[in-house]
Design brief:
The complex is a heterodimer. Chain A is mainly beta. Chain A contains 1 helix and 11 strands. Chain A has one domain: 3-layer Sandwich (Rieske Iron-sulfur Protein), CATH 2.102.10.10. Chain B contains 4 helices and 2 strands. Classes of the chains: A mainly beta, B mainly alpha.
Chain lengths: ~130, ~110
Amino acid sequence: MSDNFIRAINADEVAPGGMKAVELDGNEIVVCNCGGTYYAVQRRCGHMNAPLDMGTLDGTYLTCAMHCAQFDVTTGEALSGPVPPALGHESPPPMMVEYLKNIDMLMKDVRTESIRTYATKLEAGWVQIAL
Amino acid sequence: MNAESRKKALQYFFEKVVGPLGFKFTPDTELKDFLLEQEVILESKHGIPFCPCQPIRHDRERDMQIVCPCIPFHREHFDAIKRCWCGLFVHKDVIDPDSLPQLPPKEVGLE
């Protein structure tokens, strides 16, 4: 991994348990504060590219807000895929049923990939990230 | 996806839920490991870590009541037998999980 660290964000800007998206040299990155230890991962979800900073961080586990795929921010490893949607009790209209069938067919081939991680270091109150 | 990593993550999330409910993971580590593994398999198939010892009926309302940890949905029963159905969770004061009888709701005065 590169040791070319770039100043990314002031450490105070990310509260413990929080996340913040930054863009460095065209790379979209999420900085995660896991109880004072900072991790950096790619911003796009390994499932369907949703922005991961919109999700939730619990310990070192990041859950995507779009389909609830989960990742470990320390390794970038994908831990689970999407959670099936709840469509409620009422049957959707027939046109919607066809549409959902097509979506379902497409989704079956969508894999949840692990996400990229970046090395971080804390220096002079700044989180620095190696690209 | 790696089953061991997922088991570790499920354990982390479940502990946060069952602790305040007065439950803990069974001290039988072999059983705990086995049941968590089954849940990982169920999750990879259905997208949800269902209880490994309950049938999935494809009735969402009913199926949501067997998503692990299902303690809040069956609290009275589990409190009476000091364990959940599969034995993954036991009351915090339980030392020997094998001594706990697995009684149906009727036998503990429920239903």
